[in-house]
UniProtKB/TrEMBL annotation:
Protein EC: 5.1.3.1
Keyword terms of this UniProt record: Isomerase, Metal-binding
Bilayer-spanning residue ranges: none
Organism phylogeny: unclassified sequences, metagenomes, ecological metagenomes
Gene Ontology BP annotations: carbohydrate metabolic process
Name of the protein in question: Ribulose-phosphate 3-epimerase
Matches recorded under InterPro entries: Aldolase_TIM, Ribul_P_3_epim-like, RibuloseP-bd_barrel
Any one GO molecular function term: metal ion binding
One Pfam family it belongs to: Ribul_P_3_epim
Amino acid sequence: MDGHFVPNLTMGPDLVKAIRRCTDLELEAHLMLQNPDRYYKDFLEAGADLPLIHVESPVNTGILLKNITREGSRYGIVINSETPFEKVLPFLEDAALLLIMSVHPGFSGSEFHSRFCVQDSRSSLIYR
């Protein structure tokens, strides 16, 4: 979280690097950033295995995901509950993970969005 894409701040690549020294488990880096295209390499170099990219970020998502793939990494797609599900469709086939936010991103303890249930059902139907 960068304080711009969402109104909160969290730790960055240094925390990923510290955690990586303690485990071989797969590490996901949920990049709630205004410019994930500027920082994804830092997270990969720190030891993150799977950057999670919001389709709502004001970057060219397709180009960003191709660049992540060129780095030899897989990626996950994140969609907020108020975003039309169609926005993730172009990226689902190659995504390792789809994260549908059930709360507005930025703060823990936020109100649950019931639209999440509809989004989740729709994503399940696409793959059946």
